[in-house]
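Team,

Forwarding the record for the chain on the shared tracking sheet. I've put the sequence and predicted structure together so nobody has to dig through attachments.
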Amino acid sequence: MKSLFQDRYEKARADRKQSVEAILHCKSDKRIVVAGPGTGKTHLFKEALKGKNAALTLSFVNSLVGDLSLELCGLSEVRTLHSFARSIMAKPVANVRVYSKLSKIITKDDEILKGQRIDFDPIFYDRDDQNEHLPFYKRRRIYYDHYGFADIIYAAVLYLESRPDKIPAFDQVLVDEFQDFNQLEVSLIDLLASKSPILVAGDDDQSLYHFKNARPGLHRVWMTPA
């Protein structure tokens, strides 16, 4: 006789199968899934990648990229947004060097040279493209011959927006922890979605990265759930 726990397990597995099939059979090229811890997100990703020859999986957190690389080994290229943006910029720029604290150095430069203290990262995070302080940052970035974590993504977005023929195409793009993406990062995902089918997963209740202006709900502006 089956135990109560076995019955519950089989019901949960059947429910998951039904949900996964509904997602996979959705005809939209843009799919968004609300998935919290323990909901079978990795299983969904594996199912979505079956039969795909060229796939890309993106996440913001390095530790999650490591975990996903193991789980999706042989099924998808797995990268952080910074790493992917760097690969984009390697095409127009011969030598792309990234230093995580560059924006802090340029903030200090601005304080010394101009007597003001500007936090540059939020300018990039929010796509404040007309901000008056961007030219100073650009000049200093060129002087140091490096990109920072935020402006490497910003540079990649501007490059692809000006050269849509350079937007890479994939059989499938997967995006993990989408609730922690800011406007700049959403812009990059939006560009990828113009050329490739895309599935994003996230959970507003898990949003952690307010320090980089990630705002739960950006995905609602970006696209309507399938």
